[in-house]
Write a structure and sequence with these properties.
By secondary structure, the protein is mainly beta. Helix content is about 10%, strand content about 35%. The mean pLDDT is about 75.
Length: about 120
């Protein structure tokens, strides 16, 4: 299950600014993020102590495609489907400084290594 809701002048956080609610699975604690547009803060800069991206777990390629369509319907930029070999991904820039990744679990990191030696060398 996936959900993207545009919240305009929402009271959810007692902030009256445009917001977007992103939820995966059943939503709620641990499965939702609210992004708000805020011009009063200085733009963030990538570096030590900052977050590069937030990742959401999705079931499969079909769900990635649904997210891609829904994000584009809300006028967010996506990079489209990306095959990462160990998993499949979709990246979306939801604001100038916020990158979201939607990724599948599989096939996983043991596709080319045994469990006993996993992580001892770079693929």
């Amino acid at each position: 299950m996936m959900k993207l809701i545009h919240l305009t002048n929402s009271c959810k956080l007692n902030i009256f600014k445009p917001q977007h609610l992103f939820e995966t699975g059943e939503g709620g604690n641990g499965a939702s993020i609210i992004v708000e547009h805020n011009d009063s803060l200085t733009p963030s800069r990538q570096g030590f102590g900052t977050v590069h991206h937030a990742a959401f777990r999705v079931d499969d390629r079909e769900e990635l495609d649904k997210w891609d369509n829904q994000l584009r319907n809300f006028n967010f930029q996506t990079l489209g489907f990306i095959e990462r070999y160990f998993f499949k991904s979709l990246y979306a820039r939801v604001s100038p400084q916020i990158l979201f990744e939607f990724a599948t679990d599989g096939p996983g990191f043991m596709g080319d290594e045994l469990y006993e030696t996993l992580g001892e060398k770079l693929s």
